[in-house]
Design a protein that fits this description.
Layout (H helix, E strand, L loop, with lengths): L2 H4 L24 H30 L3 H10 L3 H28 L6 H26 L4
Helix pairs in contact: 2-4, 2-5, 4-5
Main location: membrane
Keywords: Heme, Iron, Membrane, Metal-binding, Transmembrane, Transmembrane helix
GO molecular function, one term: metal ion binding
Length: 140
């Protein structure tokens, strides 16, 4: 080897470390990653609450008396909040899933388009959830 190759200064290589739990508040995630994490959370939420929803559906369909019982059960504010959380989970998962399907078709993969589509997913899912909340709490 020549002298110039051996004496060339070596660049400092960047050091990549895993993020520790205590550093999460200092780490700024892009909007697309927040939407992706919320997509996973909403999927888990729907998966975990699915047996509860199916149980309520099964029992409400048994007779008119059981339907009236569960209709009264849904009037409690805590139950309405659970239904609202499940509605948000479904609506966000649906919107983010459509976004992922569009991205699978190689549309909107650049940074600017990904930011816009993730903001659109958040806005649409929150607006739809607000409409469900208004209906659920008897505004219209």
């Amino acid at each position: 080897m020549s002298e110039a190759v051996r004496e060339a200064p070596k660049k400092e290589r960047p050091e990549f470390r895993n993020i520790h739990v205590t550093e999460l508040s200092n780490y700024r995630m892009p909007l697309a990653s927040i939407v992706s994490i919320l997509h996973r959370i909403s999927g888990v939420l729907m998966f975990v609450l699915l047996p509860f929803v199916l149980y309520l559906l099964q029992n409400s369909l048994r007779s008119e008396i059981s339907f009236a019982y569960y209709e009264g059960f849904v009037t409690y504010p805590l139950v309405k909040l659970i239904i609202l959380a499940l509605s948000w989970g479904f609506l966000h998962h649906l919107c983010a899933g459509v976004r992922h399907l569009v991205m699978d078709a190689h549309i909107g993969l650049d940074k600017d388009s990904a930011r816009k589509s993730s903001a659109t997913v958040l806005v649409i899912s929150l607006v739809l959830t607000a409409l469900v909340a208004l209906k659920l709490f008897g505004v219209f």
